[in-house]
Amino acid sequence: LRSQDGVLRVDLVAEARVTEVAGRRAQVLTYNGTLPGQTWQVRPGDRLEVRLRNELDTATNMHTHGLVVSPQGNGDNPFISIAPGESFDYRIDLPEDHPTGVFWYHPHRHGTVADQLFGGLYGAIIVTGDEVPVSRDRSLIVSDISLTTDGTIAPVSAQEVMMGREGDLVLVNGQHKPRLAARPGERERWRVINACTSRYLRLAQPGQDLELLGVDGGHEPAPRAVDEVLLAPGNRADLLVTMRNGTSELRTLGYDRGGMGMMGAGMSGPVTLATLAVTGQDTGTTRPVPERTADPDLRERPVDRRREIAFTMTMGGAMMGPGGMGEMMDLGFDGRAFAADRVDQQVAAGAVEEWTITNPTPMDHPFHLHVWPMQLIETDREPVLEPTWRDVVNVPTQGQVRVLVDFSRHPGRSVYHCHILDHEDAGMMATVETG
Ligand code: C2O
Ligand code: CU
Ligand code: CU
Q1: Which residue among 14, 302, 314, 418 is least crowded, i.e. fewest CB within 10 A of its CB?
Q2: Long-range pairs for 290-293 at CB < 8 Å and ≥24 separation?
Q3: What is the CATH number of domain 1-129?
């Protein structure tokens, strides 16, 4: 779906559907009956008008992940709740200088976010305006799901909530190991979204040349050759692939995000995501990538305030048995679980702030801030030299990251949270308000 005359109107219906997943009959959750939902294409300065009708049997809402839009009105409102059978009209205005790149939409109703994403509710948003000459522009939404023998979505266990659930089946655009085809010499742009509720992806495509154009709303100054890209849940990669003859696999190499003292609990093994067959006549030369405008560097601005934010997981007892942990753990930030009516960080109007996010817990957590993009300036106590803009930043176990945030635009109230969505639903979310 593309915007016309500066407006993209979408009728979005969240509903359960019976479809086929990995050759099996499955009852999943969909936007408008498809897995994933349709891709939306907009330009900076456009308006999005979305009418969301909730045909699910639980409350829902919609969040446009990564869009730099006002949290006032309903443009970014994780506090809205749309009851079953009801509709809601969103109106979201993208500023003229909105970053280009790949973003996405998904439900954000606190308490059911993980269940609804795991069930299939997600779709891509492409903000166009930095076109590269390519033969194909593909959105590849990676998700995971577990199905019971009767084809319904597997319920989550208490232990999976603590660890963050990972599905048995990893899907690309709703398909299990789809086959992609191209001709040698063709260049494609791949917009990869990690829509898994908890799984980290270490993307690689051995046998093909990958070049990174950007991650989230951040842009590389020039395409950068990479062997792999780490995408925490919520992150996106914008990649160029120049096709070389042969058959290869798009894979995730596996990642250990730590565990609660349980060996291997947070270890995801390597998985094939898709196969790519490149055959036929070489298509010849590819035109050069146009020059890209460098991303701004917030380090040129004075810091008004520094704060520290810590992920917390507090254990209520020594019991670690399966199923027994749910009640034993409290997830949150700075020792507190999410409360919608409390302001956790009050930011002065117009401020630039430096946030140090620490993780004393035994596992990694992806830190996500709405509305206000973060410039990553330090990770693992190493400075990050290039301007590096993200909306999800992984904070490794026992580690810390440092970011700069420009609060001079889009006053209002929104949230930050762990993008392991089981953690978010369990309370690992907090509010920030700027006036
Ligand atoms: Cu992708 Cu607050 O979420
Ligand atoms: Cu978000
Ligand atoms: Cu977490």
Answers
A1: 302
A2: 290/131, 290/132, 292/130, 292/219, 292/220, 292/221, 292/222, 293/219
A3: 2.60.40.420
Q: Whose CA is nearest to atom 1 of ligand 1?
A: 65
CATH for the stretch 298-434:
2.60.40.420
**Could you say which architecture CATH assigns to the domain 131-288?**
Sandwich (2.60)
State pLDDT tens for residues 328-344: 578 999 999 999 999 99
- Answer whether residue 323 shows pLDDT above 50: no
Q: Which residue lies with its CA nearest to atom 3 of ligand 1?
A: 65
Q: Contact at 8 Å (CB) between 360 and 310?
A: yes
Pick the atom of ligand 1 nearest to 78's CA. Answer: 2
Ligand positioned closest to the Cα atom of 364 = 3
User: Which protein residues touch ligand 1 with a CB less than 6 Å away?
Assistant: 63, 65, 106, 108, 234, 368, 370, 417, 419
Looking at the CA of 312, which ligand is closest? 3
Best CA proximity match to 197, nearest among 108, 67, 275 = 108
Mean pLDDT computed over every residue of the chain: 94
Give the other-Cβ count within 10 Å of 81's Cβ: 16
Q: Is the pLDDT of residue 324 over 60?
A: no
Instruction: Delimit the domains of the chain by residue range.
Output: 1-129, 131-288, 298-434
Name the least confident of 172-176, 229-233, 261-265: 261-265
Span from the CA of 417 to the centroid of ligand 1 (angstroms): 8
pTM: 0.96
